[in-house]
């Protein structure tokens, strides 16, 4: 839904930007080491980006 080209053109929030905002709220790193936190943040953002890009939104079209 949010990654559609017409939405991205308006909001400037592509899958990577959405993942950057959403990942820290969905996934938490329990380490106190800044290096571990930074490395995990990259992996967490990549994981959430894949989820966003893989989301089947076909059912949303039926709502309109």
Automatic annotation (TrEMBL):
<protein>
    <recommendedName>
        <fullName>Rho-GAP domain-containing protein</fullName>
    </recommendedName>
</protein>
<dbReference type="GO" id="GO:0005737">
    <property type="term" value="C:cytoplasm"/>
</dbReference>
<feature type="domain" description="Rho-GAP">
    <location>
        <begin position="1"/>
        <end position="59"/>
    </location>
</feature>
<dbReference type="GO" id="GO:0005096">
    <property type="term" value="F:GTPase activator activity"/>
</dbReference>
<dbReference type="InterPro" id="IPR008936">
    <property type="entry name" value="Rho_GTPase_activation_prot"/>
</dbReference>
<dbReference type="GO" id="GO:0007165">
    <property type="term" value="P:signal transduction"/>
</dbReference>
<dbReference type="InterPro" id="IPR000198">
    <property type="entry name" value="RhoGAP_dom"/>
</dbReference>
